[in-house]
Amino acid sequence: MRQHLxxxxxxxxxxxxxxxxxxxxxxxxxxxxxxxETAAVGDIVLLNTTSVRLGLGTGGLHFVISxxxxxxxxxxxxxxxxxxxxxxxxxxxHAVEEQSHPMHAVMAEAESLLGTPVVICELHSMIPAxxxxxxxxxxxxxxxxxxxxxxPFAPRVVYVMTDGGALxxxxxxxxxxxxxxxxxxxxxxxxxAYGGDLEAVNLYSGLLAAKHVLGADVILCGMGPGIVGxxxxxxxxxxxxxxxxxxxxxxxxxxxVVPRLSFADPRPRHxxxxxxxxxxLGRVALAPATVPxxxxxxxxxxxxxxxxxxSGLHRRHRLVGLSGASILDASQRFPVPLRxxxxxxxxxxxxxLAAGAAGEWVARQKKRPQRRVLSGSSNVE
Length: 381
Fold this sequence. Notes:
InterPro entries: DUF3866. The chain has twelve helices and 19 strands. By secondary structure, it is α/β, with parallel strands linked by helices.
């Protein structure tokens, strides 16, 4: 077990971050909101520099642990549920399930998602693409409905963030952008993740809170930025996709899984359909899910379909074909950067087209009750 701790001096405030002088160099550090209220230029801070010193990508900045001579602001709260339990950084949150929470009575009665679609994303970078494509598809629908003089559908979209990646919601700049643009209505943080509009003890109650407390019409579910992987079949946090399918099924929701596709990732295990998706859906998910597949070039489509048939996913899950191209228009309309593993939409189109297909699928359920299901070919609509 390794942990790098270093001291530095705050040189500049940068919103949610600070610029710190460490060993004669200026380096970025993320600061907790409670610490940020008291932080000032010239303060000496204790930093966790582990991720930077190990050369990690996502999470590759320092984290302020404390400010010398200052205590963090601690707003009054009734919560008694601890997250980051039994660590020096443990914090008390007011979980939505607690008896002292205003929504306790609602949560005590909540049992079902009532068929609500839950779009399950392995990587955080899928979240904005799904949200943007959903809204783009609905915008196209609104234009048609304006001509027909019918009422448009304006869904409440809630993001449930798991603890498979970054734990503080604040770490994601993307979520702030999506909320400001109206692409997300609210957020829930579950497990040891924290900082959402609602806190929940686990994924099951977090999904129910999204539906019954926040009134979600569509739920996006996935980890925060960063994913843990080891190159082994089960040793990665993306395995939670299968667990989420099981949770949604148990709660009577409609599980929609974004497949992890790429033809730009240099690692063979992530070429075409990632081994993460194959394992999560082929070995971990015990219930069927809808898996939207985007329109790809013929060679790419054939390669993906071969992986699907060899792993038997077509027998376990509902595969549907859509364009996915709504993400192309959405990327021009919404000022939200799209990037995964350092690659842009132009550099890794298959990845984002898959997320776009998921957004299209959810949006089009409000338009057309019948969709074509793939059952032996890689053709798409």
